[in-house]
């Protein structure tokens, strides 16, 4: 009897060790900061290669003490302020090129926010929006303090940045935001992780185990629960107008996510599906429709 107890104890202990080590590995694999190479926004396109664009480096402290960095381009006093959030393991200088061009053309002010665990911002782990949604609110608070409570603030995000903007939409203190534009954002991080790990793991069981291990790791080392992160639920409880832009050939965040997000949204909403566009390729495939949609959305919500 005692031998059976010992065997079971060893099995349980080994299982606990495996789960602990496995969750740490999975979490670090998915969420740990990666080396990044700074990009130069001055090479946004061939016509701008020789343009010297000055920006102001902004540093704020997130509500949990993490250092956050952004780059502000002031074009015109009292013009709309666009706060842009890039995608996972990217930068505003890369993902933000289309928005940079559009805001420059229309003399809108632009802040390229650097997400935690990216670039010069602090933090060792990305949490796929679980903590970043509060960072988003901190950037909105910065804009209101600097430019006044009547500032015309818009949030634009691409991929994870779009999800972050939507996740922040139902937070207290976000009522001042005039509108949110999402391109290629996802419904939830765990669903996104599962979709993008299928090709490598090639087993539904292993995919599910991996996502569970990532979430356990997030709770232990990231101080957050990814299972409760759901952009659809946030949009069900927001009054902020939302524009969803998505490519119908997106395989990383399938277009079905865009329809679910749109159907969940209870505020004023619009949706633009770009045919033939993959993940974050909407502007590249149809720049005219993209720019017109962004321009009309912002123009209609500044009064």
UniProtKB/TrEMBL annotation:
Transmembrane segments: 6-27, 152-171
SUPFAM superfamilies recorded: alpha/beta-Hydrolases (SSF53474)
Keywords from the UniProt entry: Membrane, Transmembrane, Transmembrane helix
Keyword flag Transmembrane: yes
The organism's place on the tree of life at top rank: Bacteria
Protein known as: 2-succinyl-6-hydroxy-2,4-cyclohexadiene-1-carb oxylate synthase
Organism of derivation: Fusicatenibacter saccharivorans
């Amino acid at each position: 009897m005692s031998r059976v107890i010992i065997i079971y104890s060893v099995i349980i202990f080994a299982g606990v060790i495996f789960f602990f080590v496995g969750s740490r590995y999975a979490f670090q694999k998915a969420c740990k900061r990666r080396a990044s190479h700074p990009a130069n926004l001055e090479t946004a396109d061939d016509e701008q290669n020789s343009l010297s664009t000055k920006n102001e480096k902004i540093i704020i402290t997130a509500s949990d003490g993490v250092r956050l960095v952004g780059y502000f381009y002031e074009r015109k006093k009292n013009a709309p302020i666009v706060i842009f959030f890039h995608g996972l393991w990217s930068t505003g200088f890369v993902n933000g090129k289309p928005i940079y061009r559009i805001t420059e053309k229309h003399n809108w002010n632009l802040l390229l926010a650097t997400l935690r665990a990216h670039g010069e911002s602090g933090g060792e782990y990305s949490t796929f929006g679980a903590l970043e949604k509060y960072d988003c609110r901190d950037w909105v608070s910065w804009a209101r303090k600097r430019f006044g409570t009547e500032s015309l603030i818009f949030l634009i995000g691409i991929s994870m940045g779009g999800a972050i903007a939507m996740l922040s939409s139902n937070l207290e203190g976000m009522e001042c935001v005039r509108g949110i534009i999402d391109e290629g954002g996802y419904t939830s991080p765990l669903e996104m992780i599962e979709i993008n790990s299928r090709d490598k793991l090639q087993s539904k069981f292993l995919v599910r185990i991996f996502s569970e291990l990532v979430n356990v790791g997030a709770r232990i080392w990231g101080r957050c629960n990814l299972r409760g992160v759901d952009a659809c639920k946030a949009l069900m409880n927001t009054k902020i107008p939302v524009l969803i832009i998505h490519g119908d050939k997106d395989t990383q965040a399938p277009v079905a996510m865009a329809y679910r997000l749109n159907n969940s949204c209870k505020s004023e909403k619009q949706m633009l599906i770009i045919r033939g566009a993959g993940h974050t390729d909407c502007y590249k495939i149809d720049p005219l429709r993209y720019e017109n949609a962004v321009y009309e959305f912002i123009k209609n919500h500044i009064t």
